[in-house]
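Record pair follows.
FIRST:
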Amino acid sequence: MKMKVKEVADLVGISVRTLHHYDEIGLLTPAEITEAGYRLYSDDDLEKLQQILFFRELDFPLKKIKNILDSPSFDRNEALQMHRKMLLEKRRRLDQMIETIDKTIQFAKGEIEMTNEEKFAGFDFSQNPYEEEARERWGDEAVDKSKAHIAAMSEDERKAMEQRYDAIYRKIAAIRKGEPDSEEAQAAIKEWYDFLNTNTGNHYSLEAFKCLGQMYVDDERFTKNIDQYGAGLAKFMCDAMAVFADRNKKS
């Protein structure tokens, strides 16, 4: 049964004006508009609205949400898993912030002592790694940059890039039964990290590189393609990329 805009607003707890705005910018267009001008929302519309509000809860701008939802690669179940990871991370940070506030209240009363480090526990202005993963996964900017970078190459340059890509994968596949933190494995993974940052038109931070490796095992499409070079390669690369990112963050 389709719902009118006021019914949806009351159900969700947002304003009618917000729903009208979502319609105006093409973010959420109702399934039907009657001859009298009433917007009617279907169950599919409500599912899409839920996705929008999950992204809003995580402070994604409306333009970015629209790009994500309009992407041909968007997958609802994948998005829900992403939302869950990001909200758990947000809850962890909030819990730590609340603990810092409680300690600060006690400190102000003279009940406890606090170190400078404890006073700022929970503050983290770096990029949320799961948000970065989401933006890398569904954002169009990285894809456009990569396509433009490759399009600007000559035929010989593209062939050389493809050969280099193939050589790196074969090298890593040959050592995939060893330890991902070995010197040999880390040297090969560094080649892969450098290749991505040199040939895709994008810069992968260490955190984004680590998240990319996790996607090799979380997304069966990645796993299937990578494991064509050897069974278990995706998992080995995931582990080696995580080691590489963690080690170089500390150095």
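SECOND:
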Amino acid sequence: MTLTLILTRHAKSSWGDPGLPDHARPLNKRGRASAEAVGVWLKKKGVLPDQVLSSSSHRTRETYQRMALTARTTTFTDDLYHASAQQILNELNHATGQAVLLLGHNPGMAEFAGQIVQAPPDAERFHDYPTCATTIMTFDAPKWDEVDWHSGLVQDFIVPRELLD
């Protein structure tokens, strides 16, 4: 059985209100456009999640909303807010969907992406995982609790700049 992971870092957030707590920061104009573009890209590819695991932050929630995807199950959790690569893997290991969209933050997302794949894509920005970067990867495993480091096969990788320019 093949499992699919859509790994997305939140889109570009606004720093317009310096008094706003980090967890409450919304997306800026570019971030809104990026999230919408990535959602369209996923739909065109026919890669749609049936489960979403996301940080509870405002910017990850808004990224998911702007992507305009629907999933059978959506979970927003503090456990993915600035999570380490190992914390992200722990959360993913509890997933139940066939295709999971996981939304989070750097530096954990970049570290996770680099460690979960068998081989990185030939893309300069994969290693720093900029805002709204998205990787589609598959795993030859029957359940997510059998997924471990260096087991994902990259199917595609995109940064919003490639979709918006």
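COMMENT: The two ends are 37 Å apart (CA to CA).
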